[in-house]
Amino acid sequence: MSPSFHAGGDNGNGSQRSDFAAIADWVRPGSRVLDLGCGDGTLLIYLKRERNIAGYGVEIDDHGILACVRNGVNVIQSDLERGLSDFEDRSFDYVILSQTLQAMKNSERIMREMLRVGREGIVTFPNFGYWKNRLQIAAGHMPVSDNLPYQWFDTPNVHLCTIADFERFCADRSIRIVERKVLTHGNTVGFWPNLFGALAVYHFGNGA
Question: Is pLDDT above 80 for 15?
Fold first, then answer.
């Protein structure tokens, strides 16, 4: 399955997702932003309002494309698993992958492509190490939560990871973590984030 939506919690429909404000804090006003797996374009609309960005989305799902058009969002229909060959090097200030990283079959490739196309990248993903997820596993079940709403048999998620896993992944590949925010129910978690944080938000770039 190719990612065609934000595969964590809700994809912008209904209540505003808690990671939107965290992402906006890192985006400079007037920036060029590319949102991968943009769904109906809700994040881009939010960033346009809050940061006056020039936004573009990539989406594969026909319904998402139509919703973007109705919402006035610039969108290109493409499969993220094939990479970002439609875009030139450094053509955006930020490339965002919001709650879709865990649904990518080739996580390393999309991270590299994000840093080729954008000067910086932002990813958000559900932290599989969150204590409620661990508790459900200890009880013998795959976790189901606000950030992981799917049952094991219908989930689009193929590469779930913890905060510790992601940071090791970046360190091993010389991907520089600029900033990190860890959230639970919209609140920032500072104490033992890999245990008490439900959602991870990372701002990253090239180099050590």
Answer: no
